[in-house]
Amino acid sequence: FGSSFLYGYNLSVVNAPTVFIKKFYNESWERSYNQSITEQSVTLLWTISVSIFAIGGLVGALIVTPAVKYFGRKRTLLLNNIFAITAALLMAFSQLAGIFGMIILGRFIMGIDGGVSLSALPMYLSEISPKQIRGSLGQITAILICVGVFTGQVLGLPEIFGKESLWPYLFGIIIVPSLVQIGVLPFLPESPRFLLLEKHDTKAAEKAFQTFLGRTDVSYEIAEVLEESRVQRNIQVASVFQLLRDCSKRWQILTIIATMACYQLCGLNAIWFYTNDIFKGAGLSQEMIPYVTLSTGAVEILAAVFSGLVIERVGRRPLLIGGFSLMALFFIILTVCMTLQNQAIWLRYLSIVCILAIIASFCTGPGGIPFVLTGEIFPQSQRPAAFMIAGIINWLSNFAVGLLFPFIQKALQTYCFLVFAAVCLAGATFLFFVLPETKNKTLAEINLAFDKKKKVPLELREMDHQFGAKGKPSEEHESNSSSTLENGKVKSRVV
């Protein structure tokens, strides 16, 4: 609630008060410089205010790897609230102080919070989850992003805070989820995998497993983690450069880069840009559009929840490939509808259906599964670096869309949707040939599936088989691990 919810909330909260904030920029400039500001300058300041969120996100993605390595997953999420509270205070009191720069600075700091959250939260969830519910629990990240977007839309209505005198409250509310997280998260254990593999604290890891699983016998879970530990006994936490040089993880890295790039470049931002115009074309009044727009947020939530319910049955691969494929299909239909909408009224209503279908297709698969995959296909020592790479690609793509989309839209008009259809189709094709199914599989099984995409030295293949391609500790491993908890220390075993 204090992490991915805030990211989604900050994506949508700036839409409703746009007119009032631009007016505040103008008034603040006149007080500071005793002269009026041009309309182009106001637009430029507002564009900076919106896009600087992505720059802050990139900074957050860059600092998350050393943060989770030094502080741990839980403490990083706790400390991240400092950014959220600071940003909320800056933006909420900007009007009172009469300084428009406080909003720009606040958006940048809020972006740092989002950059840390979207890496540290999926990492924490993937490490505390049994593999049977790893996908469902990982989808919580996407679900709460959608809930955050919807909440921003609701609170921005004119009857609530979408008024000139009340818009600062939209930013002040950011403090509430942060305080909830500060109050609750300290009572949850740290990631047991982090405690066991990186801190070598067996007693704390055992206690954390017992708390999360609700039972005292956690020997199987300890043994399963130790199996991975044996493979990486002498391997320290990898840096981004070390991970990029690891030839055995080449296809995993390409998969994360492709999914995260398509996550931002698939055209969902274009949908938000065109929503009001399409609703106007369908004959809706300007007063009704904000309320009808709520339907898009509701569809997002329902689709994300549906994905969370079926992901452990259907699997990651079908949802991800199917989501991108359906988006490409509906983008093509939407292009036809918007090009020919003056020839038939029913095409305007079909455009609305296509918008909702694109949003639902995105939230069913591409909206959350990339975060789940990043935590599943990399070992403990490489996971922080992998999330850092994913975060960098995510935020760079986000910034690229914000920077390039106005030019694409101006040049191609409604045909810009065909560009996004091509991106979605390319992503689906790549994943069809490269991505194996990771549902209910151990890291050894996932690595073995990726190994088929490249030539792997015989020694690595033998190692994969020795360390349990079936995901179950061997008899030798079970006998070895039975004494690993003695005196609270993990005793070395050579396989």
Automatic annotation (TrEMBL):
Which keywords belong to this entry? Membrane, Transmembrane, Transmembrane helix, Transport
GO molecular function per UniProt? D-glucose transmembrane transporter activity
> Which membrane topology describes this protein?
Multi-pass membrane protein
Quote the biased-composition stretches of kind Basic and acidic residues, using this chain's numbering: 466-479
Any one Gene Ontology BP term: D-glucose import
Question: What would be one Gene Ontology cellular-component term for the protein?
Answer: plasma membrane
For the region Disordered, what residue ranges are annotated? 466-495
What are the subcellular locations of this protein?
Membrane
First-listed, main subcellular location of the protein, grouped into a coarse class: membrane
Q: Is Transmembrane a UniProt keyword of this protein?
A: yes
Residue ranges of the TM segments: 44-64, 76-93, 99-125, 137-155, 167-188, 253-274, 289-311, 318-341, 347-373, 385-406, 412-435
What's the domain of life for this entry? Eukaryota
Segments forming domain Major facilitator superfamily (MFS) profile: 1-439
Query: What family classification does the UniProt entry report for this protein?
Result: Belongs to the major facilitator superfamily. Sugar transporter (TC 2.A.1.1) family.
Q: What is this protein called?
A: Solute carrier family 2 member 9
Give the originating organism: Varanus komodoensis
- Upper classification of the organism: Eukaryota, Metazoa, Chordata, Craniata, Vertebrata
